[in-house]
Amino acid sequence: MSTLFNEQNGYWILIISVAILGGEKIDEIRIRSHQRMIGSIIGLALGIILINLNLFELLIYLIIVLLNICVVFFVPRNYTIANFFTNPQILLLSSLNTTSVNLSLIPYRLFNTIVGISIVLVLMLLFEYGLSVSKRQY
């Protein structure tokens, strides 16, 4: 997928699409796609704030663990809130790799989220069209 879109971190498109498609019903998937977008935007904003705070490495580790606990807790309860915690976690993890603040990951995360959601919505339209055609034949 990364090669197809010729983007850094393009593999997130596939991960995002699969995560959204984890819903059991069409309506649930549609809601998850909207929730993913809202949670991602808010989460990226929180991630920018956390990265710019120049926290101690031990504190970053503790925040990452806390964010991960929140993600695991909220995924079955509220997908928007779960995604709110996912992006800061990813951004903080990436900040551990470098000595300087790396904000270049943010546009890629946002772009990949938009593309992943778009792919899911197109697949849902195709699926719903296929279902309507098959119902007309019977």
Structural class: mainly alpha
- Give the count of helical stretches: 6
Specify the oligomeric state.
Answer: single chain
Helix content: over 70%
Give the termini distance in whole angstroms.
Answer: 37 Å
What is the H/E string?
A: HHHHHH
Beta-strand fraction estimate = under 5%
Structure keywords:
138 residues; mainly alpha; 0% strand
Chain-wise SSE layout:
Elements: H1 2-5, H2 11-20, H3 26-52, H4 57-74, H5 79-95, H6 105-137
Helix pairs in contact: 2-6, 3-5, 3-6, 4-5
What does this structure look like?
This protein has six helices and no strands. By secondary structure, the protein is an all-alpha fold. The longest helix is centred in the C-terminal third of the chain and has 33 residues, at 105-137. It starts with a helix and ends with a helix. The mean pLDDT is 84.
In short:
Helix content is 79%, strand content 0%. With 138 residues, the protein is mostly helical.
